[in-house]
Amino acid sequence: MSLYTNYLDEIETRKIQGLNPKPIDDGALLAEIITQIKDAQNDHREDSLNFFIYNTLPGTTSAAGVKAKFLKEIILGEVVVEEISPTFAFELLSHMKGGPSVEVLLDLAFGDDAAIAKQAGDVLKTQVYLYEADTDRIEAAYKDGNPIAKELLDSYVKAEFFTKLPDVEEEIKVVTFIAGEGDISTDLLSPGNQAHSRADRELHGKCMISETAQQEIEALKLQHPDKRVMLIAEKGTMGVGSSRMSGVNNVALWTGKQASPYVPFVNYAPVVAGTNGISPIFLTTVSVTGGIGLDLKNWVKKLDDDGKPILNNDGNPVLEQKYSVETGTVLTINSKTKKLYNEAGDEELADVSNAFSPQKVEFMKAGGSYAIVFGKKLQTFAAETLGVEAPLVFAPSKEISHEGQGLTAVEKIFNRNAVGVNSDKPLHAGSDVRVKVNIVGSQDTTGLMTMQELEAMAATVVSPSVDGAYQSGCHTASVWDLKAQANTPRLMKFMNEFGLVTGRDPKDVYHPMTDVIHKVLNDLTVDDRAIIIGGDSHTRMSKGVAFGADSGTVALALATGEASMPIPESVKVTFKGKMADHMDFRDVVHATQAQMLQQHGDNVFQGRVIEVHIGTLLADQAFTFTDWTAEMKAKASVCISNDETLIGSLELAKSRIQIMIDKGMEHENGTLARLISIADKRIAEIKSGDVPALTPDDNAKYFAEVVVDLEAINEPMIADPDVNNADVSKRYTHDTIRPISYYNAEKKVDLGFVGSCMVHKGDVKIVAQMLRNLEAEKGKVEFKAPLVLAAPTYNIIDELKEEGDWEVLQKYSGFEFDDTAPKTEARTEYENILYLERPGCNLCMGNQEKAEKGDTVLATSTRLFQGRVVADAPEKKGESLLGSTPVVVLSAILGRTPTLEEYKAAVEGINLTKFAPPLEVPGTSRSVHF
């Protein structure tokens, strides 16, 4: 009984950490536990019963298979367990969500014992996680005249698995808890540096906000046992930065409802809110768990007599409070009137109808969006098998069509990929539809949760309708520590067996590829009309339209090949003027955000798709813009490219995919070869003129338009976290964009970082070119601050070696990664040298490498949230400023921000990433880097 002994040892270790026994997913361990249950004299029998009943994970885990088999034996009378009656065994099977449990229930339903068959059929009527193997059995039994199969189909076609669930309560009493003031990053709810523990829900729950906050939430629950705790971002947006399923899991763990009494630490239905609502991708994750996300609008701009906002000394609007939501305030949510009221329910505070659309109410009733997706498929199957029309049970797809109105680019993509649409009229923004997903990406710090979700929904293979799926290893690339060694190979093995191309080979044949997932997905996207779902907020491709999603939505896309979402509104971004020679395209990206705020006052990008007319940039460089749209709080971005440039991007993608094949990464299902074929077909369509590059209609309707004046950008731009702003709500946003001159060459820089998904090959070449220039000028380059360089992909390094740039970087490096002996510990201190780090996310992720506490970091990355790249020191706040590659390199060499003159001198003659508006140059214009 060695496995059980080891489990007891682990339990003792967890007790020291204040944790309960870890839920069991190992079938071999559960088999030992069952042996002890059968032995009436066994000293561990009582504990073994509790582990079996209350601490075994459901779905397709190996433990679930062993549990379902034993319950079947009990039901058939082959084994007698006094504490588990056949009726109780059926109840336990009903909570196991599919896979082995459904297989057992079908065995019993179609067995010889009529009474048992009836019981099994009644349980099956409540189940929705049925796959093709299960429905094939039901269909075959129905055709053979089996009465239980007919009963099942009759129940499924009526969707009784949904209609017999209790409705969402009309009045929902909540008690407020202010989680923070200003925008709340998902890092607060689930810190990136604790990513290794996300799959251990109880352990990971201990990192939410703070121990003090957790104690305060528990106290509120004791004071208000009949109410739900609502987490609030006061004067800000809740859940910015990423979807982060682990963040929602943590909120649900502390404030939600237990999903099943027989499955520990899996909660659902959290209630979250923000003065400015919920970040779009985080709101999707809230819906996955059947939660409620409210836009409170409890602070509004103070207006003068002319109706114009009154500004403070900093030029920001003065806010006034409409109503208080301070911690401990009791409020009433009415799901019927869709209003937020005071405790008594007699004073309306806010309209919250967006939180209670018919679709979202269904998610709440079903306990999450998965059950609805699977339920609809099950109803459709039953109707087709019976040859009847399915009654309207679920809220119909919301189909909005405006006569005579053209389509934006994203509307065209949704129309092309829509599934189950009732009308042939074109769909416009606001329509809520199911869509086919073409490309799916899973990354390594959320992948373990995606794996759990796939097991929980009993999925075993990637949907055949998905064109390509990839599992990365980039978020844990920096340090091959014990956590990575324990988790990553297990994840890669599962995903490879599921049907994904994996960054690491479970068989250790090809070299581990730690390439940044967004860069890989950008290459795997070989159709500008594709829909991409990825387990990261920076899933923002420059071809097609990509949506960052939580680990559960990724799992659903992998299992079903579909996603459900509203068609977002679009904001059109165009450019005018000429880019100054000394400017880098990254500065255009920052300036877009700054000019948008100047033109519109409010962030019109938030929650919408940015349609950026950027047709002369190849996909690698255009990605710099689309990637940043996550920081603009946009839901997604679509690049409008001209034909010639799109063909160039697709040819580049084909070459990169071929390199993956040459390295041995092709899956036995032929994913990569299939993608090359799709790219060839798309190129032929463009060249023939049959289907040109995606463009919007001339009469498309936009929520807003932004015109970026390139000539107004005359010095490098920096996104500043403004950590000492007197208004806490203005700190750590990406809206504070400052010119380099703001710092008067006095801002000390402790560390420079060139890396993350925001850089491409050209950025790394810029580093080498600057070192050459400075060496020629000064004879030797000395760094007054450390410079960390992490190329996004191995391909880039290979090309730089061929072109002679890597040799320059090696000359100045004091550290170069070695894949034969990867780092096993994160670096905590830095010398004033150049570090050539392994391809991957590195400092940007913040879960392994970090700057020294209290440092001022200047980086090319995407994240400036508190504690992400750099933690605070007792005497000084850490701050992560974001800028272009040349600014970062020069600042590391100087140890401070440069003057504009110093900057211009340093970049003279260097091929910076250039851009010209599509209408102002021939279609053949391309950056010098390609």
Dominant shape: globular
Number of helices: 31
Structural class: alpha/beta
Count of individual beta strands: 33
User: Could you describe the largest sheet, including whether it forms a barrel?
Assistant: 7 strands, mixed
Radius of gyration (Å)? 28 Å
Identify the strand order in the major beta sheet.
Answer: 8-7-3-1-11-12-13
Mean pLDDT: 93
Gap between N and C termini: 62 Å
Percent helix: 25-40%
The low-confidence parts are 920-930
Beta-strand percentage range: 15-25%
Keywords:
930 residues; seven-stranded mixed β-sheet; 31 helices; 33 strands; globular
Task: Tell me what the structure shows.
- By secondary structure, this protein is α/β, with parallel strands linked by helices.
- Helices cover 38% and strands 15% of the residues.
- The chain is built from 31 helices and 33 strands.
- The strands form 9 sheets. It has a 7-stranded mixed sheet with strand order 8-7-3-1-11-12-13, with helices on one face. Strands 30-31-29-28-32-33 form a 6-stranded parallel sheet. A 5-stranded parallel sheet has the order 18-17-16-19-20, sandwiched between helices.
- Helix 15 links the parallel strand 7 and strand 8 (292-295).
- It is globular, with a radius of gyration of 28 Å.
- The N and C termini lie far apart (62 Å).
